[in-house]
Amino acid sequence: MSFKEEYEKKVELIEEILKKYLPVQEGYQKIITEAMAYSLMAGGKRLRPMLMKESFDLFGGEGDLIDPFMAAIEMIHTYSLVHDDLPAMDNDDYRRGRKTTHVVYGEDMGILAGDALLNYAFETACVAFDLEPEKSTRIGRAMKILAEKAGIHGMIGGQVVDVKESGHRISEDVLDFIYRLKTGALIESSVMIGAVLAGASEEEISVMESIAGKVGMAFQIQDDILDITSTTEMLGKPVHSDEKNEKTTYVTLKGIEESRKDVERLTAEAVGELDGLGRENEFLKDLIKWLVYREK
Amino acid sequence: MSFKEEYEKKVELIEEILKKYLPVQEGYQKIITEAMAYSLMAGGKRLRPMLMKESFDLFGGEGDLIDPFMAAIEMIHTYSLVHDDLPAMDNDDYRRGRKTTHVVYGEDMGILAGDALLNYAFETACVAFDLEPEKSTRIGRAMKILAEKAGIHGMIGGQVVDVKESGHRISEDVLDFIYRLKTGALIESSVMIGAVLAGASEEEISVMESIAGKVGMAFQIQDDILDITSTTEMLGKPVHSDEKNEKTTYVTLKGIEESRKDVERLTAEAVGELDGLGRENEFLKDLIKWLVYREK
């Protein structure tokens, strides 16, 4: 099977898990479950649950203990997009080629759908306690990583500085902070949770965190490059949005060529560290490399 | 000590716990920690953490295992207020006599501060796993209750229907649904978590849930009554806001007199069920009764 075929098969499995863990659409509050499904099932690369599952497999994890956390991380990623798109934030009407959640359901429901997805992420992760109660300590640790990496010392922290500095010229230091937190933290959390739930050693968990940090940075720089070099049709979202929002990006600070080199260097380092673990995972390596060459 | 003195002493202890669990105000993202503290430390009755602690004590809970959950439930309550006050929601500029979070920090930071408080609630609750790792199963269950009662089948579900039906004439059925979920669910979660962490029996947990459901309903009806009968100075927030927002309330459906009677009946029932548990807790009984007579 080619990488592309394997990747698409894995995406299908993830979509099934997401559908399984989405709330039933019923009751007086049905509209919110529709808005949650609308935003969560809008496609996307499913990179975070995929990395989580690959990390779980890498360390010999078995069974479905990882499933609720895979759904949870994608719900957290999705809620952050729903709130990012709001009029008071980036004010985007389209994402992944479809109208954004608040455009379809109204601004009030956009706010509540984001809240609902964030809350439901933790509700979903808690299912793991029922699946394998004897692993409660391990699940508790995974829960803590999930919360920490999504919060003010993780993703939200990055968003805050991103929003605060929008329209200002910022230093490389601040940009690095934003990227590490806004994009890197959830990717770190994905592979760390996979490793923790599979019973990896402290050292292994720490190596996975380092790999993910580099992958996250490479991924975000590639995003900046695509915002300049791609088209709206290809990307499924408006290009040149950084320019429109007067954002300092990796590309505006370092230029396209150096940005491309850094993506390649970070990716090579991540793959090297992965090799150093001495465990077989061709697909995970290919997935990381693919990030450099992706076109959307 | 009078009830009032005892209550105020308990509020002080809760404020100390909240301060202890608030994030340090530092780093590039400092503004979000300031906004979190601004909204969380704005006063308020601290009813939810107080009920949680009383329930924990009622079932012989010892030590500080309950503390992170007390902070967590108040963070969840607070985030819901911060998002409720946003321009796209209730559009309120004042709460508890102070400017609302988005008025002080901007609408974007208002959204992010709410997100941050919700996420930090779970991050904070996870501290319990470190405090008493041997109780991980119990803590996992408390975490699940926290998430479920705050989510689409709890508080958020109630908010969704409340927002959706605003300006419409609604049935008693729908109003009951909104009150049980929007207000009742977090109060249920408070006493249930206290009971679970203290090691109460399934039956005891279930009785506490029933008591809290009645207390929550009485509390919300009293809120409707005060919106009509109180003043902005007394309440620390605008009165007649329900009228302004064309909201159907318990008072518009049943009238003030029947509303008052129902508050008293529900309170008497709750106190009766509490007595039925055969455990001493004079303060908890007084607290429940006080809800009927409170003026703000």
UniProtKB/TrEMBL annotation, chains A, B:
<keyword id="KW-0479">Metal-binding</keyword>
<dbReference type="GO" id="GO:0016114">
    <property type="term" value="P:terpenoid biosynthetic process"/>
</dbReference>
<dbReference type="GO" id="GO:0046872">
    <property type="term" value="F:metal ion binding"/>
</dbReference>
<keyword id="KW-0808">Transferase</keyword>
<comment type="similarity">
    <text>Belongs to the FPP/GGPP synthase family.</text>
</comment>
<keyword id="KW-0460">Magnesium</keyword>
<dbReference type="InterPro" id="IPR000092">
    <property type="entry name" value="Polyprenyl_synt"/>
</dbReference>
<dbReference type="GO" id="GO:0005737">
    <property type="term" value="C:cytoplasm"/>
</dbReference>
<dbReference type="Pfam" id="PF00348">
    <property type="entry name" value="polyprenyl_synt"/>
</dbReference>
<dbReference type="GO" id="GO:0004337">
    <property type="term" value="F:(2E,6E)-farnesyl diphosphate synthase activity"/>
</dbReference>
<dbReference type="InterPro" id="IPR053378">
    <property type="entry name" value="Prenyl_diphosphate_synthase"/>
</dbReference>
<keyword id="KW-0414">Isoprene biosynthesis</keyword>
<protein>
    <recommendedName>
        <fullName>Farnesyl diphosphate synthase</fullName>
        <ecNumber>2.5.1.10</ecNumber>
    </recommendedName>
</protein>
<dbReference type="InterPro" id="IPR033749">
    <property type="entry name" value="Polyprenyl_synt_CS"/>
</dbReference>
<dbReference type="InterPro" id="IPR008949">
    <property type="entry name" value="Isoprenoid_synthase_dom_sf"/>
</dbReference>
